[in-house]
Amino acid sequence: MPEKKINHRIEELVLKWRSGQLTAPEKAELDQWYSGFDDSLLIEDSTVSIDDLRERIYLSILEKTVIETSTASSYPDAIPLELTDHPRTRLWPRLAAAAAIIIVLSGAVCLLIRRFPTPEIAKTPVHDVAPGGNKAILTLANGSHIALDSAQKGLLTQQQDAVIEKTADGSIRYATANGISASPAGAPQYNIISTPRGGQYAVTLSDGTRVMLNAASSLRYPAVFTGKDRHVELSGEAWFDIARDKQHPFIVTSGDQDIQVLGTQFNLNAYDDEPGIKTTLLTGSVIVSNRSTHRSHSLSPGQQSLLTATNLSISTADTEEATAWKNGYFMFESKDIASIMRTVARWYDVDVKFDGPQPTDKFNGTVQRLVNVSQVLRKLELTNKVHFNIEGRTIMVSK
Q: What is the Cα–Cα distance from 362 to 181, expressed in whole angstroms?
C-alpha cells in the first residue's frame, strides 16, 4: 500500500471530529478524503468479525507508518513500548497521517470501512473508555459558574475592564484596552478556571499570557491585572506562555513554590499526588523559590526544577516529555507503572486498582492521547510485563 500523506487541513478536521465540533460541510470534506483511503489490501472478505477487522486495520496502518521504537540505552532497566509513534523522529507527515487515520478508526465511527456498516461500531465498546477533551468550568468573582465546553462562542460576560469571550477555536480570552490597569474600579475580581478529570482547556489572560490547563487542574487569576505584578495560582498542571512585561513580573504560586518570570514559556506540574513540583523551562528564564526555606534557583532553557518536601534540585530537562500532553501524546521516559497510571487516570477519568504487588519495571515510549484507553493499555501490555482489565471506569492492573 502506498504511503498516505495529509495536510494540516485534514489533521484539523480529524481533531474537530474527535472533539464533536465538526460541521456538516467539514464532515463532507473529511468523508471525501477518507473515501480515497485504499483498504483493499486490508480487507479480504465480508465474513471477518468487527474486532478482527479493527485489529487488522490498526496493525496494518501502524506497520506502514510507525517509526522505530525509542531506545532505552540511557535507561538499562527500562522497557521500550512496542509500536511507538515517536515525535522525536521529526517525520511529521507520516505521523500526521497515522494519527489522523488511527483517530478516525479508533472511535469506530461511520467513516470506518463503508463496505461494512454496523451500528454497534459507532459506539465506544463496553469495556473501553474514550479520551478526554476540552472541558472546563469558569467560576466568576460573584460565585456564578459557566460550563465552557457547552457555552456558545462569543461574549460570555464582562468584569471590570475585561470582556470575557469564547473564541472560534473553543478557548476563552480576556480582552482589555490595557493588559494592566493602573486604577481599577474596586478590588481585583478573581476568576477560577477548572478542568475535571478527562478535561483540558486554554485561556488567554488580560495581559495576553496564554495558559493551557491539563486534566484535573485549576488556575486562579484576576479578571484584570493590577498593581506592580501579575499573580496567579495553579493547582495541577499547565503550560504557560507569559506575555513579556518588564515592569510587571509574572508570579505563579503552586503549593510551597513561587515562579517569577518576565516573559517566557514553561510547563508546571504541581499535582498533589505526584512526588514533587516540576518546573520545566522552554524559553527565557525563571526564578523558582521555596517559600518555606527561602531558597531560590534560576533556570535556563532546557532545565527542570523539582521541589519536594525536603529539597529543591535542578537537572537537565526532557522538554518533549514535559510538554507531550499539550501536543496530544503520553510520553514515558523510564517511568514506573504507578506514575503512568496516575496520568492515565486523570486523562480518561478512571480509577486504577492493582491486583497484587505493583510491577517495578520502567517503561519508555510514546502513545497518542486521542485514542481510547484500551489502545494505550494494549501498547503497555506488548511488553509482557503488565496486564490490564477494564471494568466499567475502573482499570485493574496486574503483573
A: 50
d(CA 235, CA 272): 8
Interatomic CA distance for residues 373 and 139, integer angstroms: 30
For 222-284, give the DSSP string.
ESSEESSSEEEEEEEEEEEEPPP-TTS-EEEEETTEEEEESS-EEEEEE-TTSSSEEEEEEES
Give the separation between CA 299 and CA 198, rounded to whole angstroms. Answer: 31
Residues 6+ apart with CB under 8 A from 171: 201, 202, 203, 204
Note whether 31 and 47 are within 8 A (CB): no
Three-state DSSP state, 217: strand
Question: Alpha helix (H) ranges present in the chain?
Answer: 8-18, 24-34, 50-65, 92-106, 319-323, 337-348, 373-381
Question: Looking at residue 21, what DSSP letter applies?
Answer: -
Coil, strand or helix at 13: helix
Report the predicted TM-score, pTM, of the whole model to 2 decimal places: 0.71
Q: Which amino acid is at 248?
A: H
What value, to the nearest 5°, has the Cα angle with vertex 38 and ends 34 and 40? 135
Q: Is 154 left (phi over 0), alpha (psi -120 to 50) or beta?
A: left
Structural contact between residues 364 and 331, judged by C-beta atoms closer than 8 angstroms: no
Q: How far is CA 296 from CA 249, 288, 290, in A?
A: 16, 5, 6
Residues 148, 239, 260, 176, CA torsion sign = negative
Other CB atoms within a 10 A radius of the CB of residue 63 amount to 10
For residue 213, list its beta bridge partners.
201, 238
Task: Give the total residue count for the chain.
Answer: 399
Looking at residue 260, its amino acid is Q
Phi, psi angle pair for 140, to nearest 5°: -85, 170
pLDDT, tens only, 340-391: 999 999 999 999 999 998 888 999 999 999 999 999 999 999 999 999 999 9
Query: Are the C-beta atoms of 170 and 15 separated by less than 8 Å?
Result: no
What angle, rounded to 10 degrees, do the helices at 373-381 and 337-348 form? 170
Question: pLDDT tens digit string along 60-103?
Answer: 443 333 322 333 333 444 555 543 444 443 333 444 444 444 44
CB half-sphere exposure, 62, CA atoms < 13 A: 20
